[in-house]
Amino acid sequence: xxxxxxxxxxxxxxxxxxxxxxxxxxxxxxxxxxxxxxxxxxxxxxxxxxxxxxxxxxxxxxxxxxxxxxxxxxxxxxxxxxxxxxxxxxxxxxxxxxxxx
Length: 101
Known about the structure:
Layout: H1 2-11, H2 13-39, H3 48-60, H4 64-67, H5 73-91
Helix pairs in contact: 1-2, 2-3, 3-5
């Protein structure tokens, strides 16, 4: 399925534009949140847009979500909790590691 979408994007600029605009619209609230959370020190994300893309990929199940049968609500909840744990733990501010001699 992805292969068909990618090939269609190359042949039709309108599909590419629609997909990019849809993605930007979807990610905009997350980008804003990540930027504000970074400003107040809740998260340490250098690039809020990249962070939003990574989180969306984790939370949606990524490419596997398109290649498998649809997840049940329980499976979706487990995936989302796991994505939140991974993302928030990885993006939490931390003290620099001490240098060992």
